[in-house]
């Protein structure tokens, strides 16, 4: 940040941005105080902030964290909220030390390939994180949830009340949460797009994870605590305790889902437990929303207020972001109104093992592993893998897929017959219970905001087939000399063929016509 806050007047202004409540560290209420929001905007407009880094037209840094959120940190610091930045990173190091740190602040952490394949449920310490602001530290015993708007009775509920089974029925639901930016790097590598103020993180295949969440269906809370909703209510808005910025304006994180989604009993959950453990801070403790089958952005973390509305939320995350544009929309003509809101996740899949550009020495079969997922209550029925870029497909045996769930992925593995050698392009596609499948190529799915890379995931593998005589001979030569086949691009350190063998071959099949 170029200039710092020094005047006594400004220091006095910053005192207005203190924590809202005792025991709610890192939470500043913005939506109830228009004058406070206006003051924050005034301060931000006097500053010049670090531009977002260029990461689409240049190689990504070979570091962990990959990208540094200078701009977002400076926004917080300009308003005297640096403690939120510090606490957030401290929490990441405690809860998520082994993730791939795609962006340090606000924290975006990706599950590695090895961690993804450990089992149907993703261990809490390995589950990906996509945050839009800092991580608040809210004590459970002082937490309360406000519900208002178009309900028959506005209420405030403590966490103890929400957890009381005598008041609200509890459920456990297995849910896959997926960021709409999963596999974004494939779009970036071919057709760069919007970088966004909050960096559109260059996610790979690991911005997805599955957990068992325990909580109470929102539908039940609205009915039992609020006496139901009014007829005008068509949407439920969720407000989170983290601070969000857009065009030098400041907000509390806000998103919404249609009432018809909430009405489907267990598809919108107020959750306090994840995989049998208290919800981690980085995942929204003490209470979060879990919206099964929708993009992860709708599953609001640190939720403290729910509003019943006649129309969708006007919060920028709902109204101005997570929009899907046509391929001819870009920097030259983008409007918030010419994209549609991304809610339900489409069917998608990924090859997790082997990895792109890997050399595989095999005996006529190559083992592939990965995941397949579909949102909106659909489930993956079939996964198919092609070893030739999409002409011939092999179906994964049902015995080699994890069980079906209404709202969760299926992990899979398959031994694909491969005779050919050299560079091969493998791809995968899933079919869901509504007979939906994936676009064939990235170009078919490209959009300016680089969301929902649901095209067939592709990797290139260098095939070395040990069943072929010439290959067997070469591998034995290397073994006898104590040399490795890889790195692939390194030349062999000995003659490829003796002179006598070369002359015999050339005389039998000369390179020039005999006459």
From TrEMBL:
Residue ranges annotated for the Oxidoreductase molybdopterin-binding domain, each copy included: 132-315
Pfam family, one: Mo-co_dimer
Any GO CC annotation of this UniProt entry: mitochondrion
GO MF, one example: molybdenum ion binding
SUPFAM superfamilies: E set domains, Oxidoreductase molybdopterin-binding domain
Domain Moybdenum cofactor oxidoreductase dimerisation: 341-462
Gene3D superfamilies (UniProt xref): 2.60.40.650, Oxidoreductase, molybdopterin-binding domain
Keywords: Metal-binding, Molybdenum, Oxidoreductase
Keyword Kinase: no
GO biological-process terms attached to the record: sulfur compound metabolic process
CDD domains tied to this protein: SO_family_Moco_dimer
Cofactors that this protein relies on: Mo-molybdopterin
Superkingdom as given in the UniProt entry: Eukaryota
InterPro entries for this protein: Ig_E-set, MoCF_OxRdtse_dimer, Mopterin_OxRdtase_euk, OxRdtase_Mopterin-bd_dom, OxRdtase_Mopterin-bd_sf
Protein name per the record: Oxidoreductase, molybdopterin-binding domain-containing protein
Organism: Mycena pura
């Amino acid at each position: 940040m170029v200039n710092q806050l020094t005047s006594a007047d400004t220091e006095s202004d910053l005192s207005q941005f203190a924590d809202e409540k005792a025991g709610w560290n890192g939470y500043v209420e913005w939506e109830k105080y228009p004058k406070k929001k206006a003051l924050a905007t005034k301060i931000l407009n006097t500053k010049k902030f670090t531009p977002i880094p260029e990461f689409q037209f240049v190689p990504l840094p070979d570091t962990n964290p990959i990208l540094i959120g200078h701009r977002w940190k400076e926004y917080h610091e300009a308003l005297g909220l640096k403690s939120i930045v510090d606490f957030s990173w401290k929490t990441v190091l405690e809860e998520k030390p082994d993730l791939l740190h795609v962006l340090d602040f606000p924290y975006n952490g990706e599950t590695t390939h090895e961690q993804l394949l450990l089992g149907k449920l993703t261990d809490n310490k390995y589950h990906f994180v996509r945050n839009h602001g800092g991580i608040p530290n809210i004590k459970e015993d002082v937490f309360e949830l406000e519900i208002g708007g178009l309900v028959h009775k506005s209420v405030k509920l403590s966490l103890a009340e929400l957890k009381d089974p005598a008041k609200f029925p509890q459920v456990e639901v297995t849910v896959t949460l997926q960021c709409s930016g999963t596999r974004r790097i494939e779009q970036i590598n071919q057709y760069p797009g919007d970088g966004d103020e909050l960096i559109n993180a260059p996610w790979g295949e690991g911005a997805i994870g599955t957990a068992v969440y325990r909580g109470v269906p929102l539908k039940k809370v609205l009915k039992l605590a609020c006496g139901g909703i009014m007829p005008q209510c068509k949407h439920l808005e969720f407000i989170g305790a983290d601070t969000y910025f857009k065009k030098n304006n400041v907000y509390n994180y806000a998103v919404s889902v249609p009432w018809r989604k909430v009405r489907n009993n267990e598809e919108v959950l107020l959750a306090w437990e994840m995989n049998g453990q208290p919800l981690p801070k980085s995942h929204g403790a003490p209470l979060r929303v879990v919206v099964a089958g929708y993009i992860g952005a709708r599953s609001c973390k640190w939720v403290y207020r729910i509003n019943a509305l006649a129309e969708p939320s006007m919060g920028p995350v709902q109204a101005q972001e997570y929009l899907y544009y046509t391929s001819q929309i870009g920097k030259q003509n983008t409007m918030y109104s010419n994209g549609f809101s991304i809610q339900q996740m489409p069917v998608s899949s990924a090859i997790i093992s082997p990895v792109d550009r890997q050399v595989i020495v095999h005996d006529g079969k190559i083992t592939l592993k990965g995941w397949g997922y579909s949102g909106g209550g659909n489930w993956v029925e079939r996964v198919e893998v092609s070893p030739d870029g999409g002409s011939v497909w092999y179906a994964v045996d049902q015995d080699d897929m994890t069980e079906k769930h209404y709202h969760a992925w299926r992990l899979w593995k398959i031994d694909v017959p491969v005779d050919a050698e050299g560079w091969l392009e493998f791809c995968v596609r899933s079919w869901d219970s509504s007979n939906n499948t994936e676009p064939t190529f990235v170009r078919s799915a490209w959009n300016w905001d680089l969301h929902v890379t649901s095209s067939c995931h592709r990797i290139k593998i260098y095939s070395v087939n040990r069943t072929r005589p010439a290959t067997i001979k070469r591998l034995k030569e290397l073994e006898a000399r104590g040399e490795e086949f890889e790195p692939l691009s390194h030349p062999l350190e000995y003659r490829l063929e003796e002179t006598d063998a070369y002359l015999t071959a050339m005389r039998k099949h000369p390179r020039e016509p005999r006459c």
